[in-house]
From TrEMBL:
Mg(2+) binds at residues 17, 55. Substrate binds at residue 42. Homodimer. The keyword Magnesium applies. It comes from the Bacteria. PANTHER family: ATP-DEPENDENT DETHIOBIOTIN SYNTHETASE BIOD 2, DETHIOBIOTIN SYNTHETASE. ATP binds at residues 55, 172-173, 201-203. SUPFAM superfamilies: P-loop containing nucleoside triphosphate hydrolases. Its EC number is 6.3.3.3. This is ATP-dependent dethiobiotin synthetase BioD. InterPro entries: DTB_synth_BioD, P-loop_NTPase.
Length: 229
């Protein structure tokens, strides 16, 4: 298994954290230790300990071994997002140090991205600049909805242009009423230059479920074997 998997999406709210959850649960079922990492999160709730993000808390609960919240999510932006684009430098070193620290705790780190591939940070840099700096292999989450084929193809092209490897993609049926669902998946399988490693049906309260069976990392494991042969 690869040491790192960075989970990006074709847009925001397409299910990156749900897929990260599925990957962590799948690895746990294989007795493979893995921790979740959300380097940049948006705080959902202000607590006595500061802003806390529900996605980061979920990743923390699924990590093996369990790590403190600040290790899981070192940067938490204000929940209302007002005034965050202020030019204040993002600490890429802090994000990288956290990643490397977690890599010493488990066999694999599942990194849950923030927004889409070109999501902009408070200092106007793209989040993908950090991913490129760390040379992370990428898993793309495609929220199956109107326009997703275009978004998926453009995202895959952007990842390749940035010099990174797209190791797989996951279809997440976020719109249960979408017509021609099967045809959309067939187009994606023909057009995306990476294997499909998962398919999640529309699942209310997915965070409360075991999603291990909806993903299959055998193609990623095979890639690791080829790279080290």
């Amino acid at each position: 298994m690869l040491k790192y998997l960075f989970v990006t999406g074709t847009d925001t709210a397409v299910g990156k954290t749900v897929v990260s959850q599925a990957l962590l649960q799948h690895l746990a079922a294989l007795n493979h230790s893995a921790v979740g990492y959300k380097p940049v999160a948006t705080g959902d709730k202000l607590t006595a300990d500061g802003w806390r993000n529900q996605d980061a808390l979920l990743l923390q609960s699924l990590s093996d071994p369990i790590r403190p919240y600040r290790e899981i999510s070192p940067v938490t932006l204000p929940g209302d997002m007002r005034g965050i684009y202020n030019g204040e430098p993002m600490d890429f070193a802090l994000m990288s140090n956290g990643l490397h620290q977690l890599s010493r705790q488990a066999q694999t780190v599942i990194i849950d991205g923030h927004g889409g591939w070109q999501s902009i940070l408070p200092d106007y840099r793209s989040y993908s600049e950090w991913v490129v700096h760390e040379k992370l292999p990428v898993v793309m989450v495609i929220g199956i909805q109107t326009g997703c084929i275009n978004h998926a193809i453009l995202t895959a092209q952007a990842i390749a242009t940035d010099g990174l490897r797209l190791v797989g993609w996951v279809a997440n049926r976020i719109n249960p009423g979408l017509a021609h669902y099967a045809e959309v998946l067939e187009v994606l399988r023909k057009k995306i230059p990476a294997p499909q490693i998962g398919e999640l049906p529309y699942l209310p309260r997915a965070q409360q479920r075991n999603l291990a069976g909806y993903v299959d990392l055998s193609a990623v494991m095979a890639l690791k074997a080829r790279l080290t042969a």
